[in-house]
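Protocol step 4 of 5: obtain the predicted structure for the target chain.
Materials: sequence only (see below). No template structures provided, no constraints applied. The aim of this step is simply to have a reference model before the mutagenesis design in step 5. Sequence pasted as it appears in the construct record:
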Amino acid sequence: MSTKQPAATDDQQTVTPRSAAPPSAKTRRAKRRRTLRFGDRQVERIGMPRAPFGDAFHYLMRASWPIFCLAFSAYYLLVNLIFAAIYFWDLKGIENAAPDSFGDAFMFSVQTIATIGYGHLLPKSAFVNAIVVFESMASFLGLSLWTGLAFSRFSRPTARVLFSDVAVITKDNGVPTLMFRVANGRGNRIVDASISVTLLRNETNAEGIEWRRQVDLKLVRARSAVFALTWTVQHQIDATSPLAALGDLAQSEAEPQLVVSLIGVDDTFGQPIHAMQYYDAARIHRDFHLADIATSTPDGHAVIDFTRFHEILPD
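Step 4 output (structure tokens):
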């Protein structure tokens, strides 16, 4: 029987059978490698084609602000150094430039690309004036792109959704129930919020091939018209639940993992937002319940104590 695995689909991901020999170290080094993180798990992708310059916009949109500022600074310095080297070929074409002064050539480039306006240093020769034209074009295009990137980063709506660090399995009305907590970290509202929980688990089919399956879990309430404060997500582990067949999740060979996805509309921007969380088996505690965080003051005001948001207590 052939051991070739079928192509993975959106809801089926193949994994290497445990009996298959891993690739040699030499083969692995010869292939492109990239590691992705999914919660506490790391998945290494080998042989995936890369397009570093084609994905530059995507990378800069996801990068942190320090990295973004560092990338812009590197671009700005590099462009000015390149044009300064060109101006240095005809330094006499820059009026008032000191002989053999690369610094003056660099500062002339900075004044040109930033459209500051010439003061002490002025273009004089036809060669320098021609390069000024090309640098002005590069300045207009480059700084427009960086300004657009910065504006897109500032205006992009993001969700500040807080998930409890762990999930619990406790009884609710006598039924074992998976629970975890979600909170809106901002003071606004997430309109028409919906949440989904997907179980990832390893399965072996009749042909002996192991798959990474995705199974959706049915929730007690999967939608909130206005998500402003907190939300306790619940899944009842009855006879039809995929979790019922796994038993002790921590000891299960299926290597279960929960993927939580929340989507909604930010009422401030009126644009869709999303948030994700992963729960491995080690972060799902049986016979524990979530600590109560809702109380009230003597005068009747409701209080939510977020200092206990991640706290769980034994049943």
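Step 4 remarks: The chain has two domains: 56-155, 161-314. Residues 56-155 form a domain with the Helix Hairpins fold (CATH 1.10.287.70).
Proceed to step 5.
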